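Holo model, adenosine-5'-monophosphate-propyl ester. Inputs:
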Amino acid sequence: MSEHQRLYPVDASLAASAWVDADRYRELYRQSVEDPDTFWREQAKRLDWDRFPDTIKNTSFASRNVDIRWFEDGELNVAYNCLDRHLERRGDQPAIIWEGDDPDQHKIITYRELHQRVSQLANALSALGIGKGDTVTLYMPMVPEAAMAMLACARIGAVHSVVFGGFSPDALAGRIVDSRSRVVITADESVRGGKQVPLKDNVDAALTREGTDVVETVLVVKRTSGEIEWQDGRDRWFDEVVDAASSECPAVAMNAEDPLFILYTSGSTGTPKGLKHTSGGYLLYAALTHETVFDYHPGDVYWCAADVGWITGHSYIVYGPLANGATTLMFEGVPTYPDHGRIGKIVDKHNVAILYTSPTAIRALMAHGEHIMDSSQRDSLKVLGTVGEPINPEAWEWFYRVVGNSRCPIMDTWWQTETGGHMITPLPGATDLKPGCATQPFFGVQPAVVDNDGHRLEGATDGNLVILDSWPGQARSIWNNHERFVQTYFSTYEGVYFTGDGCRRDEQGDYWITGRIDDVLNVSGHRMGTAEIESSLVAHESVAEAAVVGYPHDIKGQGIYVYVTLNDDVEPTDELKQALKQWVRKDIGPIATPDFIQWAPGMPKTRSGKIMRRILRKIAANETDGLGDTSTLADPSVVEDLIENRHIKS
Ligand code: PRX
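Output:
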């Protein structure tokens, strides 16, 4: 049997101790789809409500009326659920273990301390005029203040919009303007891998852009004490403002459907969209998935190695774990600093039981050889998880054997910014594992596979992944643009949610996610729209036209391959290639930096002028034998030229 078909059956002792075993999974899954009201009414009891909901599910996926509501007459406060309700039993338990970039720095924050700081910050925000429904932009390093800021917003009903600290001033400005934030919370600098990133300088630059004069206050966390500019009246030190505020701050009861946060993500077209997540359904879904998918038990130290700037950080560093009263580890640095054994050393240092990371991080470590794990034992580990991109079986096996000492099941969790929480995933005590396979739907999730015309495909098959009905963690809309929400997710196939992913369902009914089937790239688990990178490139004075595609990359999963047609009078030089890479890096952020640029005197276009990306993808991947149907090309010689001058010859 090849490695790829190996099966890792559920460990019997884990099945006995886990929250959910195989029988329980089947029983609960059936109930969750046949009688969602009963299932979710029961689950809603996990949360503390100011008003327990009578109405559970009220959702429509019909494209003329996409309307998604869960627990719509319920009232609760998300911060209360993540903090106050734990104080009596767990006040002195660590809520956050913060591990600094520098291995000599760590901090432990108990639930009581977190509650106090969040209450003070919430009062400080109120004093700055922020209240229910107002938005606050967070552009933060991985420091506890990031979680505090999210929870402080939630406490007073404000809506946070976290922007990943690796995005450029322009990208930040666009998000501030779209969300109309009057307050921005940032830090002087962030620190990753021993290097400083000038967050406050980036905010200063962003706030010179058109439309950002909505911002009245910038709160600045002092992280490095690095040199920064200061604008009196606008800029305030985070600690000074928070220290001065009272720690008595009642949590505001919010409707379950009031927005909790906006999170921007890339799609196939246009600018990034601000997905709107609401309070009750999102929190319940994050909490339930966190507990069951990682089989979290009280006392476990749990570590999700994502950044709070992404949905994974929202649901599985902050909201899910804290709603469950867990101890969540927050890591400021990178897995390769100061050496490649860092992940294992952190696991040993803090007795981590659950480790949730990305295939890219695993592949990056794998490239350095097994000995990098010799500096740690990792005996505390019980469950492993991956997210963000398909994991190749080799990386899965390495994670299992080398990091997990062949003892810990791996939860390959498929989900999206739009889904709020895990959608297709194994459960540690219930699911037999296949390396590279996301396996089975979570409770309440009804996946289906359709062909390009939307016809349902049954049995073992390949096709487009859709979800037939709503689940509580689902995004409700796009901020200020419900029409775009409907258009993007509910118009490709009528009456179902379209994920944008392709998948294969095998004979056992297990799902294998094969990756995006639209013009979205997934580079190191970071999602990017090809259109965003293209519009950045064509804004350069030398560029006439640009087309961006992904190509297979050993470590990053996908790399960024760019075809550029220059203006007539411009010389195609290597210096210009470097300049264009820097241009995109500066315009969007380092994660969008092209790996390869190929000069393209012409693009392969249809007679109606549409670029045939399918062909560009094949050339980038060096699959030039199978270009498929090229009969609709306006000028076939263009393709020959591109193949001839392909950047990476093998
Ligand atoms: O293509 C899928 C891939 O990541 C996309 C979602 O990206 P984003 O919204 O940034 O959220 C990432 C974190 C949840 C999906 O459409 N993806 C995510 N998890 C997996 C995955 N692909 C394969 N296997 C996974 N486990």
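The CA atoms of residues 167 and 589 lie 5 Å apart. The mean pLDDT is 96.
Archived with the compound record.
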